[in-house]
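REVIEWER CHECKLIST
Item 1: Sequence provided? yes
Item 2: Single chain? yes
Item 3: Sequence as submitted:
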Amino acid sequence: MAGLLIRSSILDGSAALIRARGARPAVVARRAGLPLRAFTDPGLLVSGTAVLRAFEFAAQECGDRTWGLSLSTHARLAAIIGPLWILLRNARTVGQMCEAFAHNFDVFSDVAVVTARPQDGGGLLLSWNMAATSIQSHVQMLEFALSVFTQEIRTHLGAQWAPAAVLFTHARPPGSLKLYRAMFGRDPRFNQAWTGLLLDRDTVEQPLRGRQSAARALASRVVELEERTSEKAIGRQVEAVIRGLMPYAPCSLRDVSQAMGVGPRTLQIRLKRHGETFAAIRDAVRADLASKYLRHSDLPAGRIAEILGYGDVTSLSRSFRRWQGRTMRHFRAAKS
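Item 4: Structure as written out by the authors:
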């Protein structure tokens, strides 16, 4: 998503976390200049600068210096960057994935510049620099971004993997570094020349394979986090990933489970535990997107069917009649 607009999926979970910290999402949205809907509708295009403000104001309102890190706990890279993630997962090695991410980050947004810098000994520094804005602090967003990308690498290399070091240009926060070490390993460094992830040669050269074993390694971690996850959180995560990938990938159970770093069966079990199914969530997303495309665009029915992963217009037509009780032609003719 080139430019200073980004998808509101990056805010998924923000409202719940703000409330859990005793603050009000509406106050944060108003201070940041965001529509309140941005906290609940992952498909909006919103100002990247306003999102940066929202992260900082949320931390202030909640009195939580590690708010961005806390939000990252259940975030998924695929849900945030959408089509760019499709490119990343086709890389052969972790190093190539990092280079592709840096080289193509402007496809997602221009609010930051990401670079992949080779290091002596064959390592790599994946660094983030925020674009010039009126925001004085980018601490929350930077910590969130590094944590989310660290979790993405773990979906390939296993839950125990950690970068050689994580670097921050900002000062060490007061109090314990327990959450930093849980997210990044034993070596968080502050007051550095760069903000980024330092990867050693072994990590850079690791092939992107063994997703199933990585998913099994993550399964126990997922179960441990389950108690801290709201009842509908898993369904919201699945929905966010589907919305992010729908125009660019088939969005099969396997596609979405890979994006979330778990095995297909594990994902099905977690959804069933909360009375949900993958098919029902995908169907609901398709219904919503089909209505929006017909109401707000001039896309032909064939193109809409293709975007939503249908093999032909007839299949989409049958589904649309089930969702709306009328044909797509009548629905579009009645749009305001």
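Item 5: Key structural point noted by reviewer: Strands lie at 5-7, 45-47, 112-118, 124-130, 165-167, 188-189, 196-199.
Item 6: Recommendation: ____
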